[in-house]
Specification:
Elements: H1 4-21, H2 26-45, H3 51-62, H4 67-80, E1 85-86, E2 99-103, H5 111-116, E3 124-131, H6 139-151, E4 156-161, H7 167-177, E5 185-188, H8 190-197
Parallel strand pairs: 3-4, 4-5
Antiparallel strand pairs: 1-2, 2-3
Helix pairs in contact: 2-3, 2-4
Length: 203
């Protein structure tokens, strides 16, 4: 049986995104995002670029991308992996939710959450926030993100960034992802970010 709610969300998202695509400047940024995504994948496949240098070269490239184009690139990567995506009507600037994706079951996405709350079903729109860090992840941004998700009525979130995360902080973030009833958050950075941006279908 077709999931009626999912069908309605698909139709509503298609209509919403159709309107957004006609906003001034949006189409140009999407085109630029596709070009940047192609360039990143070309760098990964470049036989003349030593494997040991590819990671650093790709992140150096991403940190130079215009913030709004970087947001569109992340949304496109989620779309290419089979997620239903809802773009923002306008860009949020530094802060806020940069886009939304539909998740059927958060337990299949976030292993920390699955271990800590295996019986909790989280389904619906998840928010995305994109940060182009040069250095370490900022703790205040991580603390604020679940607050923004709850305010927007979103069930979970992806915090996508190009910075670094100390090991102790990674463990703390993972533990927090599966605690309480606040929207769970999955951090996407480092090799996980490159995997998201790599060529491929839905996981």
């Amino acid at each position: 049986m077709v999931d009626l709610r999912l069908g309605i969300e698909h139709l509503a998202s298609w209509l919403h995104n159709y309107d957004v695509q006609h906003q001034e400047g949006h189409r140009q940024r999407v085109k630029a995002a596709l070009q940047r995504l192609y360039q990143l994948r070309s760098m990964a496949a470049d036989p003349e670029l030593p494997e040991a240098r590819k990671f650093a070269a790709q992140f150096a490239y991403m940190r130079r991308i215009e913030p709004m184009v970087f947001e569109e690139m992340i949304l496109e990567a989620f779309r290419q992996r089979g997620f239903m995506v809802r773009a923002n009507v306008r860009y949020t600037g530094d802060g806020g939710i940069d886009g939304r994706v539909w998740v059927e079951d958060w337990r299949q996405i976030d292993p920390w959450f699955s271990k800590r709350q295996p019986d909790r079903m989280v389904r619906g729109w998840a928010g995305i926030q994109c940060k182009r860090y040069e250095g370490a992840v900022r703790q205040e941004h991580l603390r604020q993100f679940p607050v923004d998700l709850a305010r927007e009525g979103l069930v979970a979130g992806f915090f996508v960034h190009t910075g670094t995360t100390p090991k102790a902080r990674k463990e703390a973030e993972g533990a927090a992802s599966g605690s309480g009833l606040e929207p769970p958050v999955q951090r996407i950075s480092g090799s996980k970010l490159l995997h998201l941006l790599s060529r491929g279908g839905a996981e």
